[in-house]
Write a structure and sequence with these properties.
Layout lengths: L16 E5 L6 E2 L2 E2 L3 H15 L3 E5 L16 H11 L4 E2 L8 H8 L6 E3 L8 H4 L3 H9 L3 E4 L10 H12 L4 E3 L1 H15 L5 E5 L8 H10 L2 E4 L4 H7 L14 H14 L2 E3 L3 E5 L13 E4 L8 E5 L1 H12 L3 E5 L12 H12 L3 E4 L2 H9 L8 E2 L3 H8 L5 H4 L5
Helix pairs in contact: 1-2, 5-6, 8-10, 9-10, 11-12
The structure holds adenosine monophosphate.
């Protein structure tokens, strides 16, 4: 159970200025928001604070902002969409300085229940990403209390996630987590620390190297660990199989052997692909035509690469998922961006949609796949944070959670 102050622990909010760090890092195409899940997910906390008569000051990053502040990465479209969803005006401070004079005056003009959205925090460059003291203080100066509801950014010790809390505390304010953070932590935390068993974890995606600690940690917690996607081929090679031109990380072969041994020692099931959909080359473009054959995992020809799990593996993984009471899934089973190579990912998504088990989708590509397939409302929880949920599954403490006051 989370032992941190939540938005419900903030008292006497009437007229108080509350700074809320949201994760409004939404995908944009030519200036239009293509998926507003993260805006919707932020509403409960914002509405609660409005209802209490607080002055609600929102901040977030958007995109990577590699070439300095620019209109393409402005939060303006978010302000508009948020205003529609809240059914009330959202005052957007478009100033690239984020916390400058324009922000100070907008906040000074706020009435109870008003909402102000600051500009993209990454417009302050390394001051944000390196947790700069000055920017942290400027953010804190705008508010009395602080709420972190940006789960998707909570694994980063940035000024608007971590640094700001020190200055809020220094002036006697409270630092709490919002409802979205609470929900994410409850689902992911319960799944990992207190799962209803059998607990099956499914990992996929491109590289083993990105998921070393997740594999190791989940092996200890789950009953069955399923590995598909590009990362499975390093495991298959570690077992002495020829994998042709499939994606392999030769520096991680020993690691994979260690994990296979670890699973045996702990008495955990480790399921790997038994067949694969292979092609002569990676499709280019990624969703372009590709000629595929299915072969047993132990018989991948030297000149072919595995780009999806095969139908037998899909059945094996789906059956394992269906026998579980708790399932956590992160990472696609193949190059799902290509319709010819999406069957494995679809089979796993369908199995999770059909089971009565608690199903938790760990953000990123698996969340995109579930959404695309129209299975979103069949899942118990779809995380809004890919990187953050992975770090959580690794057993790491998230800076955005740690920075909140203890209860
Ligand atoms: P990740 O970001 O690690 O979750 O990886 C997601 C990416 O892995 C997707 O873009 C998939 O296309 C890619 N992927 C999945 N399976 C394979 C595979 N067998 N070979 C190459 N890439 C893959």
């Amino acid at each position: 159970m989370l032992n941190k102050k939540t938005v419900d622990d903030l008292k006497d909010l009437k007229g108080k200025r509350v700074l809320v760090r949201c994760d409004f890092n939404v995908p944009l195409k030519e200036g239009a928001i293509t998926d507003d899940t993260r805006i919707t997910a932020a509403l409960p906390t914002i509405q609660k604070l409005i209802g209490e008569g607080a002055k609600v000051i929102l901040c977030s990053h958007l995109g990577k902002v590699k070439n300095g502040p620019n209109e393409g990465e402005s939060l303006a479209p978010v302000a508009e969409r948020l205003s529609e969803k809240l059914g009330k005006p959202v005052v957007f401070v478009s100033d690239y300085n984020v916390t400058g004079e324009a922000a100070t005056s907008a906040v000074a003009a706020m009435q109870e229940g008003d909402v102000v959205l600051l500009q993209n925090t990454r417009f302050r460059g390394s001051e944000e990403t390196k947790n700069g003291e000055q920017f942290s203080k400027e953010l804190a100066d705008l508010a009395d209390d602080y709420v972190c509801d940006a789960f998707g950014s909570s694994h980063r010790a940035h000024a608007s996630v971590e640094g700001v809390t020190k200055f809020i505390s220094a002036k006697g304010g409270s630092n709490a987590v919002g409802y979205l953070m609470q929900k994410e932590i409850d689902f992911l935390g319960n799944a990992v620390e207190n799962p209803v068993r059998p607990f099956v974890a499914i990992l996929g995606g491109a590289k083993v190297a990105d998921k070393l600690n997740v594999i190791s940690n989940l092996l200890e917690k789950c009953d069955t660990l399923i590995i598909g996607g590009g990362m499975a081929f390093t495991f298959l090679k570690a077992q002495g199989m020829g994998v042709g031109n499939s994606l392999v990380d030769d520096t991680k072969l020993d690691y994979c052997r260690e994990m296979i041994e670890k699973a045996e020692k702990l008495g955990k099931k480790l399921l790997l692909p038994v067949d694969a959909a292979v092609a002569s080359a990676f499709p280019n473009p990624i969703d372009g035509p590709v000629d595929v054959t299915v072969v047993p995992a132990s018989e991948i020809p030297d000149d072919k690469m595995g780009l999806d799990i095969g139908p037998e593996t899909a059945k094996l993984f789906a059956d394992a998922a269906k026998s579980a009471k708790t399932v956590v899934w992160n990472g696609p089973m193949g190059v799902f961006e290509n319709p010819t190579l999406a069957a494995g990912t679809i089979a796993v998504a369908r199995a999770l949609a059909e089971t009565e088990a608690t199903t938790i989708i760990g953000g990123g590509d698996s969340a995109a796949a579930v959404n695309q397939l129209g299975f979103a409302d069949k899942m118990s929880h779809i995380s809004t944070g890919g990187g953050a949920s992975l770090e959580f599954l690794e057993g790491k403490a998230l800076p955005g959670v740690m920075a909140a006051d203890d209860k």
